Amino acid sequence: MDKIKIAIVGVGNCASSLIQGIHYYNGKNPEDAIGLMHWEIGGYEPGDIEIVAAFDIDERKVGQDVSEAIFAQPNCTTTFCSEIPESKVKVSMGHILDGVAPHMSDFEEEYTFVVSEEESCDVVKVLKESGAEVLLNYLPVGSEKATRFYAQCALDAGVAFINNMPVFIASDSEWAAKFKEKGIPIVGDDIKAQIGATITHRTLANLFRERGVKLDRTYQINTGGNTDFLNMLNRSRLDSKKESKTEAVQSVLGERMDPHNIHIGPSDYVPWQEDNKICFLRMEGRTFGDVPMNIELRLSVEDSPNSAGCVIDAIRCCKLGLERGIGGPLISISSYTMKHPPEQFTDDIAAEKVDGFIEGKLER
Q1: What is the pLDDT at residue 239?
Q2: What is the pLDDT, as a whole number, of residue 76?
Q3: Neighbours of 142 (CB within 10 A)
Q4: Beta partners for 53?
Q5: What gap in Å lies between CA 11 and CA 14, rounded to an integer?
Q6: CA 36/CA 9 separation, integer angstroms
Q7: How far is CA 242 from CA 1, 182, 198, 310, 339, in A?
């Protein structure tokens, strides 16, 4: 089968994990490959994905082959596949817009972005000339203008769009209508992890509801040491992130919680944690006879590989959408892999819907 040709905006830790994973699983058998939710989707295996274009603004990445750029500073995620062949794809200079928070310049170069002086490229032209079919958005949290810019570039180039960060595109009715009108699939918004803070919180919240336990109050506090957490020290960039993560939990409750009783969001930047994310979760509720109970949980995960396991499914479902001529949001895979999809379902129902979409029993 032909390769699925992808382009990436933001060659950071998440892109590094994804590209490492494409090569790590290439040539493996389903029995050997752990860490995947689907080995094969529509005839496509992980190794059937090919990167054909990439955009970044850091001088240590712009102009470099993607195979080298994914290991350049400030990337700090785990290297689980070091032998990445040269891709022959050079990282193009992207458009900064609001992609770099001002406070990032206050930190040492090994931890933050170093903005290149190269002139920004014509993104639509690069996408068309590369033959890209799917554009992945990995911009920093709070990049509202930049995300809308690249979403429009995808529309102009006729390329499917996977929005992995919390600016609402797929879940915004106006943007969704634009992609539907163009006959281009979109998946979004804000990528989940395979087993991360949000999916764990959602699962426990759903368990409370199903077992008749009243959830009175809860918090989820996260710390990490990658550029994502450094970027999020600027609280003004967090509105959509907090909304996305909070809604992901609220949506599985039978009765919405008072906003004062639910707190979910990044807490602090700890440089030595690097790409390791630590989640502190507390849930307080009442069981039979109004008797109180609580859960305290600490979760530690390598952040970027955790999301790549979801993105690799989103890419292949996007390809199916392209092959089937579907325009607009792909509801099933969005609800399965994203925190703020156009329609929220519990994770078990979302998984069933994805299987139905893959088998062709559901349109989207």
Answers
A1: 87
A2: 98
A3: 25
A4: 7
A5: 8
A6: 23
A7: 40, 31, 11, 20, 11
Looking at residue 267, its pLDDT comes to: 79
Q: How far apart are CA 12 and CA 34, in angstroms?
A: 24
Report residue 268: phi and psi, to 5°. Answer: -160, 165
Closest CA to 127 of 13, 51, 48, 23: 51
CB 67 within 8 A of CB 86: yes
Cα 129 to Cα 54, 91, 123, 178, 232: the distances in Å are 12, 14, 10, 23, 34
As a dihedral over the C-alpha atoms of residue 219, residue 224, residue 227, residue 228, rounded to 10 degrees, the angle is: -20
Supply the pLDDT for residue 89: 98
| Dist. CA 142–CA 112, nearest whole Å | 16
As averages over each run of 10 residues, the pLDDT of the chain (364 residues) reads 94 98 94 91 96 98 98 98 96 97 96 98 98 98 97 98 97 98 97 94 96 97 96 91 93 93 91 97 98 98 96 98 98 97 95 97 93
Give the CA diameter of the chain: 66
Residue 354 pairs in a beta bridge with none
Phi and psi at 6, nearest 5°, equal: -115, 155
Tokens of 355: 């299987």
Q: What does the alpha-carbon distance between residue 251 and residue 253 come to, in Å, rounded to a whole number?
A: 6
Q: What is the pLDDT at residue 140? A: 96
Three-state SS sequence of the chain? CCCEEEEEECCCHHHHHHHHHHHHHCCCCCCCCCCCCCCCECCECHHHEEEEEEEECECCCCCCEHHHHCCCCCCCCCCCCCCCCCCCCEEEECCCCCCCCHHHHHCCCCCCCCECCCCCCCHHHHHHHHCCCEEEECCCCCCHHHHHHHHHHHHHHCCEEEECCCCCCCCCHHHHHHHHHHCCEEEECCECCCCCHHHHHHHHHHHHHHCCCEEEEEEEEEEECCHHHHHCCCHHHCHHHHHHHHHHHHCCCCCCCCHHHEEEEEEEECHHHCCEEEEEEEEEEECHHHCEEEEEEEEEEEHHHHHHHHHHHHHHHHHHHHHCCCCEECHHHHHHHECCCCCCCCHHHHHHHHHHHHCCCCCC
